[in-house]
Amino acid sequence: MSEERPRVVYLDDEENNLMAFKAMFRREFEIFTTTSAADAVAYLNQHEVQLILSDQKMPDISGVEFFELTYPDFPDAVRILVTGYADMEAVIDAINKGHVYRYVTKPWNENDFRVTMLNGVEKWRNAKELRSKNEKLERAVDELEKFVYSASHDLRAPVVSIMGVTNLAKSENLGEKASEYFSMIEQSTGRLDSFLQNLIHYYQNLKSDEIKTEIDFNLLLDQLIEKYRPLENASSVNVTKDISTAGKFVTDEHRLSMVLGNLISNALRFRDSAKDQNNVEIHVVQTSDRAVIRIIDNGVGIDKDKLPHIFDMFYGTSELSKGTGVGLYIAKEATRRLNGKLSVTSDLESGTRFTIEIPNRA
Amino acid sequence: MSTGKVNIFLVDDNDIDLSVNSKLLGLTDFVGEITTFTSARKFLEELERIEGLAKQPNVLLLDIMMPGMDGFACLDAYSQLPDSIRHHIMVFMLSSSIDRNDIRRAENSPHVIRVLEKPLDVYLLKRLIENNLMDQRQV
Hints:
The complex is a heterodimer.
Chain A: E1 7-11, H1 15-25, E2 30-34, H2 37-46, E3 51-55, H3 63-70, E4 78-83, H4 88-96, E5 102-105, H5 110-171, H6 176-207, E6 212-214, H7 217-231, E7 238-244, E8 250-252, H8 253-269, E9 279-286, E10 290-297, H9 316-319, H10 327-337, E11 341-347, E12 351-359
Parallel strand pairs in A: 1-2, 1-3, 3-4, 4-5, 7-9
Antiparallel strand pairs in A: 6-8, 9-10, 10-12, 11-12
Chain B: E1 6-11, H1 15-26, E2 31-37, H2 40-47, E3 58-63, H3 71-79, H4 83-86, E4 89-95, H5 100-107, E5 112-117, H6 122-138
Parallel strand pairs in B: 1-2, 1-3, 3-4, 4-5
């Protein structure tokens, strides 16, 4: 393709200009000249043209009009206006309408004209390359989404089966050793599953539209506690809820449960074994315009230096091997999508306190 | 459950899930008879022959992802059945996927009470059944 000469269409009502142009540039460019706008369009329909040049002042159509006319069908071609005199208004008009790359004044300087055209061809090439890269990128994103979809189905299904069997095995009395092993399997599969879920949530949060539903805080919190307590092996943690509601509360339940699930599982996971009693308190105060949810634990707490970074993706992974490194990032992002705020205070003595504030969409 | 027990129809192509869920449900205090089906088609064929549906509440746990007739197709066929059958059945769908579109699609159906994620949480199921029975009585 670099061997091929760039194609140029030049429309002008003065034959002399066309001939001079052709004589000057025929070696470097594949040139089609015409005095008829209709012929120019016919040529454009049959060839991939890099540059469209047009005189401004013509009896039937102005250069700017010709550019506007052909823009919708040939948006990629680079347009250069050739003006016989300092018709500044037309030039400004053309540039403002956005489709003209440069203008050249007549009589033209051969070298300047050449440089302008070569730059135009370069611009055309760049735009084309960008478009093909964009297409590739879109395809890659598409495939990634398909992968996430199939991960959510195919990868998770067997994990979930293992969890079911383990759950069943634990509820039957198979002896102390067996229950100990099953507990280990349960925890590891639970980890694996929460990592899978986090990955899926990450993409869902990016992608999904908001679906508003009425929230039953009591039920939602119970479900999350029931879900995460065994996963975090945290049966000894004393979890209390205190919910005060006023009327309906509506938000995107899926995102809200991503946020609360991550925070509750963290509160359970990072309990402080040096303390006699591990506590997690969940307070919900809901009004007609918002809900404030606080999740307070007396766990190990977060170091002052680390606190500003805990919402960064993959921050926690090296510091605290217990985490997947995406949980709090997802919590923060999902809160943002709910138009809410997520904040944290923590110290190494008393534990960690997360506050989520989200608007009521009822 | 103050209202006595419920009968369960489990429809799932995955043998392991089918047997685990049926055992888990068998260990609870709110479940009476459990009937398992390895395909939606078998369930639909049998459903019209099952007698005594009206004697006690029945719960259908229908897996979404199945080869051949999947949960959604089964639901379409189910919705064509006479009221006299559907009236006695509470439908829950089961999925190991947490795909939102699937969940939304299922919960948009007037017949589906809820989509439950696998592994099945039998206590959540119990609670949802209780709530639903209470709602029905209030109506």
